[in-house]
Amino acid sequence: DQQVKQNSPSLSVQEGRISILNCDYTNSMFDYFLWYKKYPAEGPTFLISISSIKDKNEDGRFTVFLNKSAKHLSLHIVPSQPGDSAVYFCAASPPIIGGSNYKLTFGKGTLLTVNP
Amino acid sequence: NAGVTQTPKFQVLKTGQSMTLQCAQDMNHEYMSWYRQDPGMGLRLIHYSVGAGITDQGEVPNGYNVSRSTTEDFPLRLLSAAPSQTSVYFCASSSQRLRLAGPPTDTQYFGPGTRLTVL
Could you tell me what percent of chain B has a pLDDT over 90? Predict the structure, then answer.
């Protein structure tokens, strides 16, 4: 039973355009959501996160939107650059009072290709 | 500051062999975790630790043992390797952040991974 779903295995976008990566979750206990970026032969690196008390978080070219009622979040990259080409993982964390996000549930990932 | 280091980078085992994947971090993080990534799958949590001497199981713990004798090290042991354990293994660490005043500003740092093949 997959609790975090990324239904698009891949996405191809032209440089300068917007990239939108989607993620759905089924566990209503999740209260914190993260996006990780992964290049081949490297470990994932943290990109951006959002708490369930917010519906939007922005960091430079990256914006994450959260729709709690739909159990859906999306990552927008504007403008997309060739260096953004990587696998993007959506991850979710249950509430951990006083703790950190050490127990993450990941989606399968979406391969983003940004064409020059 | 090396961050999270993993050794070896690559390993080939025969079915039934044992080995230990090493993970170390120099950021004084309390929390450490092991994940595996299989083709077409996301990362799945194997075991995690919230501090020295404390470990717990994640989503896919069978066939793996862990221990946490120091804050810095969190080795993953395969006692009798099986082909189903062929995967890329990632170690991660993070520090404690209180959520009381909003979301943590820190999150998990991942190592570069160990690619394991079991024949």
Answer: 74
DSSP string, A58-109: EETTEEEEEETTTTEEEEEESS--GGG-EEEEEEEE---TT--S-S-EE---
Closest by Cβ to A103, choosing from B30, B45, B99: B45
DSSP tag of A15: T
Within 10 Å of residue B98's Cβ, how many Cβ atoms?
A: 11
CA distance B84 to B87: 8
User: Which tokens belong to A106?
Assistant: 């990941």
Residues of A in contact with B42 (CB under 8 A): 4, 6, 89, 91, 106-109
3-state SS assignment for residue B83: helix
Instruction: For residue B43, give how far its alpha carbon lies from the nearest alpha carbon of chain A (Å).
Output: 6
Over residues B75-117, the pLDDT tens digits come to 999 999 999 999 999 999 987 654 444 455 557 889 999 999 9
